[in-house]
Amino acid sequence: MTQTPTTPEQPKTNEPKPSFVKLAMRNMVRKGGKSLFHFSLTTFGLLAFLVGVSYLTR
């Protein structure tokens, strides 16, 4: 009699998968300073772009 290999079953939980926002927040907390640097760089870049466009279209 041959036996098939059994795989351990994971316990079934009713918890939904974490949302993208929750995963992003967890990643941001874990990486700390790097995320803050990128966030501030993005904010500065966006503000510079908006000021530049408003200056060119005045």
Please characterize this protein's 3D structure.
The chain is an all-alpha fold and 58 residues long. The chain has a domain of 37 residues. It has 2 helices and no strands. The longest helix is centred in the last third of the chain and has 24 residues. The protein is elongated, with a radius of gyration of 24 Å. The model has no long low-confidence stretch (mean pLDDT 83).
Beta content comes to: under 5%
- CA gyration radius, whole angstroms: 24 Å
Q: How many E strands?
A: 0
**Average predicted confidence as pLDDT:** 83
Shape: elongated
Order of helices and strands: HH
Quickly list its features:
about 60 residues, 2 helices, elongated
Task: Provide the fold topology.
Blueprint: H1 20-31, H2 33-56
In short:
The protein has 58 residues and is mainly α. The chain has helices spanning 20-31, 33-56.
